[in-house]
Amino acid sequence: MVDFEVVSLPETEHVGVGETAPDFTRPLVNGEYWENVDLSDLTDEGPVLLGFHSMDGAFPATYFWKEMTARDWTEDVQVVGLSISDPYAHKQLLRERGLVDAPVALFSDPANGVAEAYGIVNHLDGMAGIEEPRPALYLLDDAREVQYVWVAEEWPDFPDYDEAEAAIDRL
Amino acid sequence: MMTAEDSTITLYRLQGCPYCERVVRRLNELELDYQSRFVEPLHSERNVVKRISGKRTVPAIVDRNTGVTMSESANIVDYLDRNYGGA
Predict the structure, then answer these.
(1) Residue B38's closest CA among B4, B76, B66?
(2) pTM score, two decimals?
(3) pLDDT in tens, B8-32
(4) Any CB–CB contact under 8 A between A35 and chain B?
(5) Closest CA–CA distance from residue A24 to any residue of chain B (Å)
(6) What is the dihedral of CA A83, A10, A21, A49, to 10 degrees?
(7) Is residue A59 classed exposed, middle or buried when 0-12, 13-18 and 19+ CB atoms within 10 A define those classes?
(8) Is A37 a member of any domain?
(9) Bridge partners of A83?
(10) Does A101 touch chain B (CB under 8 A)?
(11) Number of structural domains, chain A?
(12) CA B21, CA B4: separation in Å to the nearest integer?
């Protein structure tokens, strides 16, 4: 039995269910291009599942996208990721995961301002000057109201995808 | 913040491409509202640009105000001057 060591993260006052998720503008990367997009542009079109994950290339990001795309969620919600990786790294991730033509996209937030606004900053040990979001899932309705949220309480930690799926079904 | 849906002009560009910067400069001089779309550096993979303009070169603009789609920075700058120069 492998003893799996995890670190507890401090408690955080993150944006929660029933609250309006803070709007933001960041480059949104798809298989073909990126451009500045407001989160509210997406929610105006319908519900959004916004997934915060580790830097592209780290194994949690790979697991995250594997799971997000293995489930048939994109018919019910717009599946959007966010990490501190730059747009070129997002393009690389889309290529490597075979998602160039998939209806998914990733926000790029190298300065981590969105995580700050959502109360989910994760200070990284041993990487001076770099912070990123805690792993988190936000399900937003078309008014940007949070319908479901999962925020990591330890590191590493992975979303409860079944719970998220149940929340999507309730939309 | 403006998005492609709000802006009349969409500019397909590459980061650090001098021909693209030339168009950006003129758009700014003419105080035109535009939305930037940054595309694939690899020429062969710029299918989105090919779809809109028939070529894979950047810069390319789509002007929904006039229905014009155009490539080549000199052409674009001329076009902007003619349509929006007002001099």
Answers:
(1) B4
(2) 0.93
(3) 999 999 999 999 999 999 999 999 9
(4) yes
(5) 9
(6) 50
(7) exposed
(8) no
(9) A108
(10) no
(11) 1
(12) 19
* Residue contact B40–A36, C-beta within 8 A: no
Domain that holds residue A97: 23-31+46-170
CB A132 within 8 A of CB A122: yes
Q: Kindly list the residues from chain B whose CB atom is less than 8 angstroms away from the CB atom of residue A36.
A: 1-3, 35-36
Domain B9-84 bears CATH identifier 3.40.30.10: yes
- Which chain B positions have a beta carbon within 8 Å of A87's beta carbon? 38
In a domain, A39, yes or no: no
- The string of pLDDT tens digits covering residues A87-119 is 999 999 999 999 999 999 999 999 999 999 999
Whole-angstrom distance, CA of residue A42 vs CA of residue A118:
17
CB proximity B40 to A under 8 Å: yes
* Beta bridge partners of residue A8, listed in sequence order: A154
Residues of A in Cβ contact (< 8 Å) with B4: 35
Write the residue in B3, B38, B47 that is nearest to A34 by C-beta: B38
Q: How far is A108 from chain B (nearest CA, A)?
A: 13
The CA distance from A28 to the nearest CA of chain B, in Å, is 10
Provide ipTM, 2 decimals. 0.89
**CATH number of the CATH domain containing A75:** 3.40.30.10
Residues A118-162 have pLDDT tens digits of: 999 999 989 999 999 999 999 999 999 999 999 999 988 899 999
Assigned domain for A161 exists: yes
Residue A112: C-alpha distances to residues A45, A86, A140, A168, B19 (Å):
25, 11, 20, 27, 31
Does residue A73 form part of some domain?
Answer: yes
For B3, the closest chain A residue by CA position comes to A37
